[in-house]
């Protein structure tokens, strides 16, 4: 019977304050990539997740999809400050699989060469290994599992996720489309438009600062000829392209 967590499991708490931004996988669909090393197949899946429960479900799904594989090693990182970091060797020698996979995730740079861009989070990696009959040794396993994750990350597009202040703007149906287009033209991030009842509701996101709020109010007043009223809706994390 497999242990739920191997000795390679890690959990780091990074403090209560939120980071202003971090990197995520841009796509919500899984990314798969396979490498072969000395006849062993290493099949990596990367997937964006929002909770530890979702990460564990991805791991369970890979185990179910590849029942004949010997190992399903995993690592995941969660949270705006990457406060949760876990890894699992799944039967490989301790420290030869999960930890190298976790390091590959944590050290990956969202923007190559940019300071503090190694900030990838909300991601799970599962490497399924079909043993090829040749022992790789501890060093060979570390390199293989690290390379499997790193090479898959090279195929991924990353996005910046940032905490933004959210405002609602009610608009008559007849003018909602025009207001939305003009706001987008002026660089305002419109995260959604809901048409319900007699009016539409535009959701607008701006950096969480007094200057940004004042700038948004000015733009809205100009576009709506003073008819629009902004309603603060709190803050939320938003993906930026």
> Structural class of the helix and strand makeup?
alpha+beta
The overall pLDDT, averaged over residues, is: 90
**Count of DSSP strands:** 10
Give the distance, in angstroms, between the N- and C-terminal Cα atoms: 44 Å
- Please count the helical segments: 5
Largest sheet: 5 strands, antiparallel
What low-confidence regions span 5 or more consecutive residues with pLDDT below 50?
1-17
Q: What does the radius of gyration come to? A: 22 Å
Shape from CA axes? elongated
Order of helices and strands: EEEHEEHEHEHEEHE
- Relative helix content: 25-40%
How big a fraction of the residues is strand?
Answer: 35-45%
Strand and helix layout:
Blueprint: E1 21-25, E2 31-37, E3 40-48, H1 52-65, E4 71-78, E5 84-88, H2 98-106, E6 123-130, H3 137-153, E7 158-172, H4 173-185, E8 189-196, E9 199-207, H5 210-224, E10 230-240
Antiparallel strand pairs: 1-7, 2-3, 3-6, 4-5, 4-6, 7-9, 7-10, 8-9
Helix pairs in contact: 2-3
Summarize the structure in short:
With 241 residues, the chain is an alpha+beta fold. The protein has helices at residues 52-65, 98-106, 137-153, 173-185, 210-224, and strands at 21-25, 31-37, 40-48, 71-78, 84-88, 123-130, 158-172, 189-196, 199-207, 230-240.
Structure write-up:
This protein has 241 residues and is of the alpha+beta class. 28% of the residues lie in helices and 35% in strands.
